[in-house]
Amino acid sequence: MVKHVILWKLKELSKAELATVKANIKEHLEALAGKIPGLLEIQVYTDGLDSSNVDVMLDSSFESEAALKAYAVHPDHVAVADTYVRPYTATRACLDFTV
């Protein structure tokens, strides 16, 4: 199994805009469950403690590294990323690893 973990710091937004963006990221990424072959689990966390220095975390699991690579270019994933994530991202950190 392969884990794919991403941490995003979002651009400066009003409190209301930030809440909306975070909710949209969570809703639309988690909606990919069952739609992409090899994607075993996907969870988005948006309610970090005040000590956090990022806004959103994606924790996902894939059958294999090949499944992760296919997810990266899958049209449903690309549409979500291009619409709900990338336009609002200031920084992104990723860690992929085998479990």
Termini separation comes to 5 Å
Reported CATH architecture: 2-Layer Sandwich
Could you spell the SSE succession in H and E letters?
Answer: EHEEHHE
Oligomer: single chain
Quick one: CATH class?
Answer: Alpha Beta
Our count of helices gives 3
What's the average pLDDT? 98
Determine the fraction of residues in helical runs and give it as a percent range: 25-40%
Describe this structure as you would to a colleague:
- Strands 2-3-1-4 form a four-stranded antiparallel β-sheet.
- It contains three helices and four strands.
- It has 99 residues and is of the alpha+beta class.
- Helix content is 36%, strand content 33%.
Task: Give structural attributes.
99 residues; alpha+beta; Alpha-Beta Plaits; 3 helices; 33% strand
Brief rundown of the structure:
This protein has 99 residues and is α+β, with helices and mostly antiparallel strands. It has helices spanning 15-30, 65-73, 75-85; strands spanning 2-10, 39-45, 56-62, 89-98. The protein has a 4-stranded antiparallel beta sheet.
Give the SSE map:
Layout: E1 2-10, H1 15-30, E2 39-45, E3 56-62, H2 65-73, H3 75-85, E4 89-98
Antiparallel strand pairs: 1-3, 1-4, 2-3
